[in-house]
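Deviations from the work plan: none for this task. Representative record:
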Amino acid sequence: MKKQFGYGCEFCSGIVKGKRVDREAFKHKTGFVILEQVLIGVCDQCGSRYYTAKTLKRVHAIASGKAKPTRTQRVPVAQAV
Ligand SMILES: [Zn+2]
């Protein structure tokens, strides 16, 4: 299998490690898309998150309506106090 992570972080001297997370929210120009059980890269020092091209492609497909989401969930929005 191709090694997707293990490269140096672009913000610090840490190493980006692969991590499977239950849910990750991706900001998109039309809102947010949440992927579940997604493999992301996380810097072991600063915590910066990195996403694979495959993951971003999936986010784009769902955000643009090309792929159907499993379900849609309402997100509460409020003004900061
Ligand atoms: Zn870092």
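Helices lie at 53-63.
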